[in-house]
Amino acid sequence: MTKMTHVDFPPKELVSYTKETQTPTTTAQKEVEEEDEEAPAPPPAVEAEKEKPVETQEEEVLHELTEEEKLQILHSEEFVNFFDHSTRIIERALSEHVDVFFDYSGRDMEEKEGELQAGTKLSLNRQFIDERWSKQRVVTCLDWSPQYPELLVASYNNNEDAPHEPDGVALVWNMKYKKTTPEFVFHCQSAVMSAAFAKFHPNLVVGGTYSGQIVLWDNRSNRRTPVQRTPLSASAHTHPVYCVNVVGTQNAHNLISISTDGKMCSWSLDMLSQPQDSMELVFKQSKSVAVTSMSFPLGDVNNFVVGSEDGSVYTACRHGSRAGISEMFEGHQGPITGIHCHTAPGPVDFTHLFLTASFDWTVKLWSTKNNKPLYSFEDNSDYVYDVMWSPVHPALFACVDGLGRVDLWNLNNDTEVPTASMAVEGSPALNRLRWSQSGREIAVGDSEGQIHIFDVGEQIAIPRNDEWTRFVRTLAEINENRDDAEELAAQRLAA
């Protein structure tokens, strides 16, 4: 008698990592599920043994990089771009300071209310300086970005104590974050006397140099040196360029530059190899005008005003039968250091007004309709280095002087003394100033390479609805007083 035992051997399991074999067919789905339920889970040791070859395979792939390979990665364009971008972000994050103890019940604000009222007119917000790139260099020019209002470009003269560093430097600072390092560092071989963001091209920065070259930097490039530059030839500039300005519209714009020998050039930003147009600024065919400053009225690309080394002011135009110098305005006893046309748009047109600053310690108000100054502001006791109208308030302007003083003048309130003044600590000479587009901040550059950002209080910065009509009355009073003074002077002369 024999006993038979039935043994059911499962088919051999084939392990595959292809998608097709892992997806069971609908007919065999149930059988596979039943087999999975019946089959006991493999012990951990078996799983480890199965996975072991894979780990070994991975270990074989990963190997230690050689020094040469590391250097190759460090110098690759992809790594440099990544590192440059990441560094900026980390710097911004590390520099943020938040008051975790702020009391939202209002007690903190009650305690600070007196302080806020005391400093509402003009207060120092922050300062920018770089130990290597800007310290001991004179700030020669400032400009806010039209596309990114938080970005400010500053140009710098050479540092005599660092002969091995580049003579010319331009730094882009960021107001949005608390970091103390520049967003971008640009430099060139000659001291940068003027700088501007290229309007309609947010990535480009233009610089005018002491050698006469116009240089163009691009923040998309990893290079700190210019991506384009003009030639040092008779067709371009060969004297220092103190004035650069991009004028026009999105589809038709030019870079305008003027050098101290009176040569004015018009350039296309796409090609700086030669100017599109050039002219000599000469008054009455006799002497060339040594231009130190330039300004275009709001919305005008043809007419402009320039200040000169001899203290005279000139109106000029780029095109037409009377292209060149039109009229001369006399009144200053020293070189013109700054000039600015009225820019605040509103119900009344004040584009005929402009301001000048000079070495003769004065700021003067002019109109293109009269070749004598309308008014002279004589509250300073040193050279006045720069002056600029508020971009939003019709009667407000700011000026800076050699004693480290910033003055705000609201002509609707007073024409004899400034509405607000503040002296910078250490009294460095303040060379340049620039209002922000909002009219709420003023950037000021000094002779030691530092930039000071001042907040202007709302009650002084933001105009009321009647400011334009009030300014019309103010100008009428100024003209009346000037006429009376001229009449009195004529009577004394006759006597």
From TrEMBL:
<keyword id="KW-0853">WD repeat</keyword>
<dbReference type="InterPro" id="IPR025956">
    <property type="entry name" value="DYNC1I1/DYNC1I2"/>
</dbReference>
<feature type="region of interest" description="Disordered">
    <location>
        <begin position="1"/>
        <end position="54"/>
    </location>
</feature>
<keyword id="KW-0963">Cytoplasm</keyword>
<dbReference type="GO" id="GO:0045504">
    <property type="term" value="F:dynein heavy chain binding"/>
</dbReference>
<comment type="similarity">
    <text>Belongs to the dynein intermediate chain family.</text>
</comment>
<keyword id="KW-0206">Cytoskeleton</keyword>
<feature type="compositionally biased region" description="Low complexity">
    <location>
        <begin position="18"/>
        <end position="29"/>
    </location>
</feature>
<dbReference type="InterPro" id="IPR015943">
    <property type="entry name" value="WD40/YVTN_repeat-like_dom_sf"/>
</dbReference>
<keyword id="KW-0677">Repeat</keyword>
<dbReference type="Pfam" id="PF00400">
    <property type="entry name" value="WD40"/>
</dbReference>
<dbReference type="GO" id="GO:0045503">
    <property type="term" value="F:dynein light chain binding"/>
</dbReference>
<dbReference type="GO" id="GO:0005868">
    <property type="term" value="C:cytoplasmic dynein complex"/>
</dbReference>
<protein>
    <submittedName>
        <fullName>Cytoplasmic dynein 1 intermediate chain 2</fullName>
    </submittedName>
</protein>
<dbReference type="InterPro" id="IPR050687">
    <property type="entry name" value="Dynein_IC"/>
</dbReference>
<dbReference type="InterPro" id="IPR001680">
    <property type="entry name" value="WD40_rpt"/>
</dbReference>
<dbReference type="GO" id="GO:0010970">
    <property type="term" value="P:transport along microtubule"/>
</dbReference>
<dbReference type="Pfam" id="PF11540">
    <property type="entry name" value="Dynein_IC2"/>
</dbReference>
<dbReference type="InterPro" id="IPR036322">
    <property type="entry name" value="WD40_repeat_dom_sf"/>
</dbReference>
<feature type="compositionally biased region" description="Basic and acidic residues">
    <location>
        <begin position="1"/>
        <end position="11"/>
    </location>
</feature>
